[in-house]
Amino acid sequence: MTMHETMAKTMDECVTMIKQIQHEARFNGNTDRPFWPMIVLRSPKGWTGPVEHKGKKIENFWRSHQVPITIDAKNPQESLDAIEAWLKSYNHEELFDANGKLSAELQAMMPTGDKRMSANPVTNGGYDQFRTLDLPDYREYAVKNVISGVTKHENTYPLGEFMRDIMKRNMQSFRVFGPDENTSNKLHAVYEVSEKCFWGDILPIDSDGTHLSRNGRVMEMLSEHTLEGWLEAYTLTGRHGLLSTYESFAHVIDSMVNQHCKWLDMMNREKWRRKVPSLNLLMTSTVWRQDHNGFTHQDPGFVDLVVNKKSSVTRIYFPADANTLLSMADHCFRSQNYVNVIVCDKQSHPQFVPIEKATQYCAEGVSIWDWASCEGEPDVVLAGCGDIVTFEVLAAVDILRRYTPELKVRLVNVIDLFRLSSEDTHGHGLTDDEFIRIFTADKPVVFNYHGYPYLIKRMIADRSNNLNFSVHGYVEKGSINTPLELAIQNGVDRFTLAIDALTQVATSKTQYINVINKLKQRRLVCQDYAYAHGVDLAEEANWKWPH
Amino acid sequence: MTMHETMAKTMDECVTMIKQIQHEARFNGNTDRPFWPMIVLRSPKGWTGPVEHKGKKIENFWRSHQVPITIDAKNPQESLDAIEAWLKSYNHEELFDANGKLSAELQAMMPTGDKRMSANPVTNGGYDQFRTLDLPDYREYAVKNVISGVTKHENTYPLGEFMRDIMKRNMQSFRVFGPDENTSNKLHAVYEVSEKCFWGDILPIDSDGTHLSRNGRVMEMLSEHTLEGWLEAYTLTGRHGLLSTYESFAHVIDSMVNQHCKWLDMMNREKWRRKVPSLNLLMTSTVWRQDHNGFTHQDPGFVDLVVNKKSSVTRIYFPADANTLLSMADHCFRSQNYVNVIVCDKQSHPQFVPIEKATQYCAEGVSIWDWASCEGEPDVVLAGCGDIVTFEVLAAVDILRRYTPELKVRLVNVIDLFRLSSEDTHGHGLTDDEFIRIFTADKPVVFNYHGYPYLIKRMIADRSNNLNFSVHGYVEKGSINTPLELAIQNGVDRFTLAIDALTQVATSKTQYINVINKLKQRRLVCQDYAYAHGVDLAEEANWKWPH
Q: Which chain B residues contact residue A466 at CB under 8 A?
């Protein structure tokens, strides 16, 4: 790209300069793509404003950023005269007719149709050929032959294959963005159809697995800011994308996502605005798997920010495994005018359901997992929201089944966070009746949440049974821990959950005391082992749902 | 400053180069301050790691950021040999003795005392002469002769005078930081003792009120990131400061403050770490006064982020007026190892109490304002947390006194947000008994909060009387509104609060229906007037506490 720093002093000079730039560009090796000149106008600050007042410089100085002329209430005339002179300097009589209407000559200069800035397809979701993605059937990428709580798989890998084929079918309107390598996020299948976009010099050595190309459509740069800005702008043209990032560092774009939510909310109120594809954000290197990164990389609070924005533009999903992630992603790619936040870890995790059931669970948003629950009314509900914490819930249910088979236990999984909100707070909120049908009116609910537990407390604050909920989650305790050690420190592990459930259903202080003591001992053994060996006790790490 | 790009190949060359730089600096007009050379070492990525493996380049290539050599489980020998060769390349036999101890020669090279990186006073709060601020008596800067709810004053101006004199007494260890002009934040008294720091060319015209100087100690730059980084680093040296910013744009530094909280938490666990002055953040252009900026500038959610961090390092204060702000600031300047967030608007607002009472209120954190409350047990509690929203509470109490004098009303003000937390969640949390003494066990509480109302709900979730609370706050409704119009849209205005109180205490649907209807009408009149005239009805805008 060439930068012309020459100062064009007239419109004719400007046109000549653009023609020259276009001419050069044509011989610059970039003939394969349209060339858009950018004109930078540099003007003095406060240009055409008052030059000075009462001996104080204003134009082209900091005062032009303030109230340029303040009227002295006691002696207003000098200031009023200055304001009058300033406003008259615009020669309003040349601009407006006797009735105060814009003159016909200027009116004729105004652009019409798509040439109006607001209606330019580049900024108003306007390229019709791009608006609808040609989506393959997400079910074709599903993890097959899932044995619930046994089969293991990387949660994000099938999504990468799904996105590879979306990209293949929509080469001009779909991009994948990320501050990390997509390989590290297990989304590397996308490289099969497109390289990473790189405009620097590509060296011979870069052919060795670096996946670089000027025409690459995978956007990688260690700058969450830049990527979020790119994706926002890309959706404005009617195109689609997904940005995957470390959960903890999504806070880098807090302010930008905030403003995009506000912008979506405002644009929903304007009839002339066309809808744009949603801003899809995948948090995929999550708080519970930072074994080698530690405390700095543990922060699940990005969603705490998003829940404060207007409910009409915010959606937050916690798929429990690879298949629910596929179904949720498909849903998000079809949506418009939302900020969709999906939280799902990239590593290899136990899978829970085949794709048909996954689709059902995603549609329900909150589901009773019948295959892991008692029939009828339970004595206690164990609930999970988030992939890894739900797996701990499943293991806790197994513990309860083994040690206290007489206890009726229900397992609930929450994928759509806003289902917990009351109906009048968010469009996705369950009715009070549905909420009670799932969580019961009066039974204890041990709720294992992926993030900061207080978020759940605030979401269910208006539910009549909110005091029955005991919420577990991340409470800022962590370091370079093994998975189970980290879970135990924060109280989201299988043992703590089972102990909590037993403590709450016990009708006397001694009822389950033996089981509880055994579980406490086991928890301690697991902690000691992890501390001593740097890995989890194989028996617990490899635990599988045995039922 | 001079940059030497020459490559020093030996240690001797390095020393020569530093001496040369120091010599030049001495003749560079900067003889008044000590000169610290900075050495930048540029090395290949993965330097000294494996150069390549199985024909794949590693050193100085992207693979050195990964696991450099993966061991093939089926055919491990080639990889194991490569790893052995790599590790042996460090000549461990020259570094360690036969017992595996570091050789005496290398041991002798290790720095001791303050020369150790961790113990360097520059990074370990270590300059004793700076650690304690010489603070003037904050009470001397108080707004005098306060008539509660009548006297008006800029909340932040006295703080500016207080900081001016702190700076005067502690010229080497106190700085004020801000992305906005301190004049705009009404903290401009600081310019009386120090200019803004500016290292660019200072032109003759800049003598005209620009307050620029190379030696300036007021740090202004429209980059919240840079300022937060500066202040963090400054506190590490044992020095002190305050960063004031637009509340809405504090989200720009979400991620940085997050990490500082985590760092403080970690350092609290290390005995060798010296305490450092707190990171003091003042949010002073707040959500409720964005008359000319609108929706984009309305976001009180920064505190929602901070509450998720460890309670041992976080403090959040909502002073109600200028005098409580002074007292809180004095407290924060004396504190160590905290992130102190103070939320207080810069504009002219009604004042509530003289400085002695302000000091008492700050110490209590939550106070019953006896001068605005009934005696004994109330029928309803109206509470405010935040300056502007508490003023609306006061106006609502006045409405109730006038229309329903038989009703016993209590006014509670919360300055220390964490007082609402349960005792075991935060060290500042009220006991349940205290909480009930203030908010009653069973009376309705109409709570007017400065920020997103859900935050209060989550903080009181475990209180037995939490369902009695009706929380009002900012719910993302706003534009370029007048103050009262914005308050009404979000339901934090005097009328809505009074209506809510009456609705909740009514024993039948008709009991207060006439008053409620009058208030609804008045609210509508105020909204219409604001919409039509762009300013609030004078009678409401100038309302004063008449009791």
A: 461
Q: Which residues on chain A are in Cβ contact (under 8 Å) with B265?
A: 295, 476
Q: Are B298 and A261 in contact (CB under 8 A)?
A: no
* Residues B466-478: tens digit of each pLDDT: 889 999 999 999 9
For residues B130 and A245, give the distance between their C-alpha atoms in angstroms, rounded to a whole number.
Answer: 41
CA B96 to CA B400: how far, in whole Å?
Answer: 81
Angle subtended at Cα B435 by Cα B433 and Cα B440, rounded to the nearest 5 degrees = 95
In whole angstroms, what is the distance from residue B233 CA to residue B175 CA?
12
Query: What is the ipTM for the molecules in this complex?
Result: 0.92
Closest chain A residue to the Cα of B455, Cα to Cα:
A458
Q: What is the pLDDT of residue B207?
A: 85
| Residue A440 to residue A3: CA distance in whole angstroms | 67
- Mean of pLDDT values over B130-148: 95
> Which runs of E-coded beta strand occur in A23-113?
52-53, 56-57
d(CA A490, CA B394): 42
- Secondary structure letter of residue A102 according to DSSP: B
Q: What DSSP letter does each residue of A344-367 carry, written as one string?
A: ---SEEE----HHHHHHHHHHSEE
- Backbone φ and ψ for A350, nearest 5 degrees, come out as -60, 140
What digits encode the pLDDT tens for the residues A335-361? 999 999 999 999 999 999 999 999 999
Contacts of A501 (CB under 8 A, 6+ apart): A380, A382, A396, A400, A407, A409, A444, A446
Q: What integer is the mean pLDDT of A180-204?
A: 93
Q: How many CB pairs under 8 A join A and B?
A: 98
A163: Cβ contacts below 8 Å, ≥ 6 apart: A174, A176, A187, A189, A190, A242, A329
Distance CA A21, CA A3 (A): 9
Residue A465, judged by CB atoms within 10 A of its CB (0-12, 13-18, 19+), counts as middle
Question: From CA A342, how far away is CA A360, in angstroms rounded?
Answer: 17
**Binary contact (A57, B304; C-beta < 8 A):** no
Single-letter residue type at B151: T
CA dist A338 and A148 (Å) reads 32
Q: Which residue has the higher pLDDT, B180 or B288?
A: B288
- The amino acid that residue B347 corresponds to is Q
> Which two tokens mark B206?
């800049």
Consecutive H or E run containing B69: none
* Other CB atoms within 10 A of residue B182 CB: 23
